[in-house]
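Data card: per-record layout.
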Amino acid sequence: MTDEPAIVLDYRGLRCPLPVIRARKALRRVPAGREALVTADDASAPADFSAFCDIAGHELLGIEEHDGLFEIRLRTGRKGR
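The structure for this 81-residue chain is written out next.
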């Protein structure tokens, strides 16, 4: 783990599947072990990011919802997926 701040990805206003597609692209260049915070307001985001983490090898750290805004924390895993 590193002391670097979390990568923040703001995908409010985007609908499925765009948040996951953009996160996948953004995280390709991120070294394994970095923490990312994704914000999204699409109701599909929790399920989409859970599946995305499983497929891409990232660790899902948690999902919180506040008034329709989802905060999804993950730790990057394998590269190149």
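Known properties of this structure: The chain is about 25% helix and 30% strand. Residues 7-75 form a domain with the Translation Initiation Factor IF3 fold (CATH 3.30.110.40).

See the next section for split statistics.
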